């Protein structure tokens, strides 16, 4: 634009200004504004900057992968060790995901931090589906959200259904005490007939299984036992201790909840680290690929400018000779 | 003469159990079909989540005759490396954990790996809230709440004693006993001087307690410590 204007102006002013002064003016303007036509040196500055930033990103993702890997190792043994804890309850009370009750509470277990692949959105998706599955005209389904990420996703469309939000679970290493406190908190503040804990069960570093555990309230356990459904076998058990059977069932349900939640939280934390590890691994790999491509472009550009310069020199020389 | 009769009788059964083909796997269901069906109707584009049943190790069926050994599954959470600094916990169980955790000389030694410890034993004595309960193979199916006390495992001529803080014991009809405890420690790892000290401390606390909560806390501490004391002396 400026060049064209200048040329136009120049043409108008040509009789007034001597040609020498015009070229001087032109070169002083050009060095600031634009590369003149015919000169084909290409700036490599942009590409170099880009390469530098990609390299830095790669360094960061590699470090994050290492951190996730070491955290995973610590938490994996704990998660695996806690797997025995819920089995007796399933052996005794059975697995009842299809139980039909009025008040459902969905406990979505998620992570506080992002950059860990799709585990949080999977948990949220499953929770929403469970919500849909258990909603009806006379039913009431609520959420209890553990973790920042599920909160961010669930608040958007089902804010009114969220009962409790608990975050910063993993500030300290997870332990049974802490989880029991959370379990107690939930039991005290939420009315439920069935608790459904949605979490990602750790299978390997690259795979997690979305899982739902169901915990029934003592009243529902009693009802199901009497009606002789899935829990019909429970009637054959003698109950020791406690004043009444319902008291024992109450204790049992609370203990079961804390045990299952403990396992769920550990499994989810383990899946999170695994997912983060694989996500960071693939992003370092992507950064490497990008860096390769950029290096190629950079080198090609550099070579092109060298070649251009050589051609110019040679053709200049041959013109002089000829 | 008949001492080996049970093992001889058991042998063909064991052999039959060992000879298994991949085709005759136990037909244990890994998912609740009713649930999967309902799920697919409501959310057809999403796979149904797994349920705990899918990860459950199948339990043996109730044998027709009483087996010679009782299978005891002992489950513990990975209990904490003593994180007793927190306040505000109210579950009775937790008090018991802390009261116990303070007593361990070496926290690392705590028998708290949280794995399933499964053994075939002759008898276990369970500290139920109603009193000590001996469990032999073929025991009637029972649900028992545990109180702080000694869990002794008798196998052959060995007796192993553990102090458990609290939990539940389920005895199934198939001679399998599941014991879920919050914490368990072999009795020989408990330091008696620390027990005495703790007992005094909690007695003092009970005397100076003003609120109901404090009283209850101190009472639990005393309960655990006196149970420990009894375990050590007895």
From TrEMBL, chain A:
- GO molecular function annotations of the record: proton-transporting ATP synthase activity, rotational mechanism
- Native organism is Acacia crassicarpa (northern wattle)
Reply yes or no: does the keyword Cytoplasm apply.
no
List UniProt keywords, sorted A-Z.
Answer: ATP synthesis, CF(1), Hydrogen ion transport, Ion transport, Membrane, Mitochondrion, Mitochondrion inner membrane, Transit peptide, Transport
Q: How does it sit in the membrane?
A: Peripheral membrane protein
Q: What is this protein called?
A: ATP synthase subunit gamma, mitochondrial
Q: Which family does it belong to?
A: Belongs to the ATPase gamma chain family.
Q: Where do the TM regions start and end?
A: none
Recorded hits in NCBIfam families, A to Z, give: ATPsyn_F1gamma
Which PROSITE patterns has this protein been placed in?
Answer: ATPASE_GAMMA
Localisation per UniProt entry: Mitochondrion inner membrane
Top-rank lineage group of the source organism? Eukaryota
Outline what the protein does.
Answer: Mitochondrial membrane ATP synthase (F(1)F(0) ATP synthase or Complex V) produces ATP from ADP in the presence of a proton gradient across the membrane which is generated by electron transport complexes of the respiratory chain. F-type ATPases consist of two structural domains, F(1) - containing the extramembraneous catalytic core, and F(0) - containing the membrane proton channel, linked together by a central stalk and a peripheral stalk. During catalysis, ATP synthesis in the catalytic domain of F(1) is coupled via a rotary mechanism of the central stalk subunits to proton translocation.
A GO term from the CC aspect: mitochondrial inner membrane
> Which InterPro entries does this one have?
ATP_synth_F1_ATPase_gsu, ATP_synth_F1_gsu, ATP_synth_F1_gsu_CS
Classification via SUPFAM superfamilies: ATP synthase (F1-ATPase), gamma subunit (SSF52943)
Assembly, in brief, is: F-type ATPases have 2 components, CF(1) - the catalytic core - and CF(0) - the membrane proton channel. CF(1) has five subunits: alpha(3), beta(3), gamma(1), delta(1), epsilon(1). CF(0) has three main subunits: a, b and c.
From TrEMBL, chain B:
Per UniProt, subcellular location reads as:
Membrane
Pinpoint the ATP synthase F1 complex delta/epsilon subunit N-terminal domain residues: 114-176
- What Pfam families does the entry give? ATP-synt_DE_N
GO molecular function terms attached to this record: proton-transporting ATP synthase activity, rotational mechanism
Q: Per its UniProt entry, which superkingdom is the organism in?
A: Eukaryota
- What Gene Ontology terms describe where this protein resides (cellular component)? proton-transporting ATP synthase complex
Record keywords: Ion transport, Membrane, Transport
The similarity comment for this entry is: Belongs to the ATPase epsilon chain family.
Spell out the protein name for this chain. ATP synthase F1 complex delta/epsilon subunit N-terminal domain-containing protein
Which organism does this record belong to? Acacia crassicarpa (northern wattle)
